[in-house]
Specification:
Helix content is 13%, strand content 50%. The chain contains 4 helices and 14 strands. The chain has helices spanning 47-54, 114-119, 180-185, 208-217; strands spanning 3-9, 12-26, 31-41, 64-73, 79-85, 91-93, 98-102, 105-111, 127-133, 135-141, 146-157, 162-166, 170-174, 191-202. The radius of gyration is 18 Å and the shape is globular.
């Protein structure tokens, strides 16, 4: 099993991956440094994968690194969280959360319901990365992660604070009250609901450097863009 380590240096976070005759995949452009006998492959995507990428915020390229050595991925003023995906378990990621994973983790596509994605402001088509199989995954985050377990329960979030959820949970957008007027007076037009039995990863408080960088740049501050 590849070793995933989250580094914290000078307020920047990065992911170091140690391979022993193993294989991992990473987001395109994520590589910072590489040491050892590691070959890089980037298979051409299918036309369907191109289309799905065009209709979502997910990258169509995710290069594969195979061999023995050490990789370090780009640093960020945001953070990273290492998730262990168990056999028989599926995870659905918020767009932009995927960073790297072991080759034993299957990367697929999940499409949200058209009505839910429309109300979320993402149009009628909303594709997300789906994880299955087993192994470790590095997720990009804006701050520290809290992992919660729901037991036939419901969790509400005002915004995309849940960056990952297990497939068994139902996802919906609803008004916080039954009345439109009362929803207006609460200043909460729509909230995201997660219901059932499963796990969620919640990131509700950003790192202060990430918050300052995103306000200054007006976009996500991952990788080298945080320094430009």
């Amino acid at each position: 099993m590849a070793h995933f380590e989250v580094l914290d240096e000078q307020g920047f976070h990065s992911v170091r991956l140690t391979l022993e005759d193993e294989s991992i995949r990473a987001e395109a452009g994520a590589l910072s440094t590489l040491r050892g006998e590691i070959r890089i492959e980037s298979p051409l995507p299918t036309p369907l994968a191109w289309l799905r990428s065009a209709l979502s915020e997910e990258s169509v390229f995710r290069p594969r690194y195979t061999g023995t050595g050490v990789l370090e991925l780009e640093s960020s003023v945001g953070g990273f969280h290492v998730l262990d995906v168990a056999d028989g378990e599926g995870w659905i990621l918020e767009p932009g959360s995927y960073w790297a994973s072991e080759a034993t983790v299957e990367l697929g596509i999940h499409r949200e319901r058209a009505w839910t994605s429309l109300w979320a402001g993402r149009g009628f088509i909303d594709y997300r990365t789906r994880l299955r199989g087993h192994g470790r995954v590095a997720l990009a985050t804006s701050g520290p992660i809290e992992e919660l377990t729901l037991e036939n329960d419901r969790y509400w979030a005002q915004g995309p604070y849940v960056i990952a959820r297990t497939e068994g949970l139902a996802y919906s957008l609803e008004r916080p009250t039954k009345s439109f007027l009362r929803s207006f007076t609460t200043q909460e037009r729509l909230i995201r609901g997660y219901q059932g039995t499963g796990r969620i990863l919640v990131c509700s408080v950003p790192y202060w450097r990430y918050l300052l960088a995103t306000k200054r740049l007006g976009n996500a501050a991952y990788g080298p863009t945080a320094l430009e």
